[in-house]
Amino acid sequence: MVNKHVERLAKELAGAIADLEGAEQIQALNDARRALHKVSPFRDEPIDLVQWIQSGHVKANDWNPNTVAPPEMRLLEHSIMVDHYTQPIVTWTQDSLLHEVVDGFHRCQVGRSVQAISDRLRGYLPVTTVHSSRGDKSNRMAATIRHNRARGRHGVDAMSNVVLELTRRNWDDERIAKELGMEADEVLRLKQVRGIADAFADHAFSEAWTYTDDPENECGAAEATPHAPSGRDI
Question: For 154-186, what is each residue's pLDDT tens digit?
């Protein structure tokens, strides 16, 4: 049941914030979110509080070993351009002014360097902050690596299913390649993988025949298996 008193106060607060403009309005949003975060049952979860911070107050760390290849960087830019920000940049801070990136350096870079995105965000970036108890450098370094390594990779079979489903939905190869950040030959190979598997789905092979998409397969399956792009930017 909705608490009518809280509902009324929320509407009044939203109206007061709507009457503000520019930096004053953004600061009021951050202040309201911090106040609600303090009483939230999820206040121990950093994602419970996402704030908009001026991009100049968000800096890279000096240890991130992750690099993103140009095609994946272009895909990240396209993703943020069309899907907008769906993940905040994870940071650590000793104060409320300077935020050091723990995870999301490339999301930060896109938001700062791509003019259309920077203009859309009015020079701000969406930021969440790790607990102060995890603030020493060793913990921050470990958190960066955990974020990087936990993302995993996309399986070839699953990716080929996605490509075929998009094809059935009348996406041509050029659009699939653009939207998924692939080269044209990757799209073709993924179609072939699923197509071959479907063609022989009901065929009985002898035990001497096996199929694997293990990149470590000693018979050289890695050379015949298309590479599926890894997860989104870290």
Answer: 677 777 888 888 888 888 989 888 888 888 888
pLDDT digits (tens, 9 = 90+) for 210-221: 444 544 443 333
Sequence-distant (≥ 6) Cβ neighbours of residue 71 within 8 angstroms = 181, 182, 183
Q: Where are the beta strands (DSSP E) in the chain?
A: 51-54, 58-59, 89-92, 99-103, 124-129
* Numbers of helices and strands, H then E, in the chain: 10, 5
Convert 148-161 to b/e letters by CB count within 10 Å (16 or more is b): eeeeeeeebeebbe
93-96 contact pairs (CB < 8 A, 24+): 93/129, 94/135
Beta-bridged to residue 58, according to DSSP, are: 99
Mean pLDDT is highest, among 14-23, 131-140, 223-232, for 14-23
CB atoms within 10 A of CB 116: 10
